[in-house]
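Recall that a protein's primary structure is simply its ordered list of amino acids. Everything else, from secondary elements to tertiary packing, is in principle encoded there. The following example makes that idea concrete.
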Amino acid sequence: MGALDRAALPPDVHARAKALTAREAEVCTMLAAGLSNAEIGRSLLLSPATIKDHLSVIYGKLGTRNRVETAVLADRLGLSGYVTAVGTAERYRQAAAS
């Protein structure tokens, strides 16, 4: 996604994304990078149930209904490209494979 794709989003979407707390944005970024609730929880030292609670709040704030919609929107907002989340996802996948 390029800058034009992000700019094409309605202004209220950007405002809703800015309403995310730092933790919610972090969880959203990790979700968009493909991590499961358990992987996100291990990375942030939180239980999967707490991650599920965070995701419910994120869905409400962003106006999304599920993980896929949230991940697509996060990508369009430019949240999915953070190296830390991608690095975390890869690190957990490598650990699970060994």
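The longest helix spans residues 48-62. The mean pLDDT is 81.
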